[in-house]
Amino acid sequence: MSNNEEIQNPDAEVEVADQAHQPEAELSFEEKVESLTAELEKALEEAETHKDVAIRAKAESENIRRRAEREISNASKFALEKFAKEILAVVDSLEKALEHPVEGEAQTAMREGIELTYKLLTDTLNKFAIEQISPLGEAFDPGLHEAMVMQESDEHEPNSVMHVIQMGYSLNGRLIRPARVIVSKGKSPEIDQKA
Length: 195
Fold this sequence. Notes:
By secondary structure, the protein is of the alpha+beta class.
């Protein structure tokens, strides 16, 4: 076709456009409903997929927020843990000094000073939730106590703490050092050697 023919026949383009829309116009009502229903189902599936992604993203962000809050809380609660472990050596030294017998007035005055220092230090530790574990007479608990020796004893229940070698400590309920203890065990039955 030449340009002149196109100008002379402007209705030709309109006919071609009408033919392109004709198949839609020829669709029956049921076919249109089916087509629209399929499009609706596809849109609903996509919406459900996006909703699921959004719910998962929200849950993940909540988990991250809770984890961060827990870590911040633990960081503040247990920030003193390293310091507490180091200061326990000082407490142990004062306890060992208090175990020695006193001879004379000079040593009595020194002992009183050590007792006051020890009390001040343990009170300060308690203010910061560093608590002493003294399990004397209690049942042995491997989660809180470290058994150094087991000894036979008639005076103590089997598997109970009969002597504390070194006190244990916890910080805000978390064990930072187990108590070192001597644990009692029942006497072994004597074997009759008469045969």
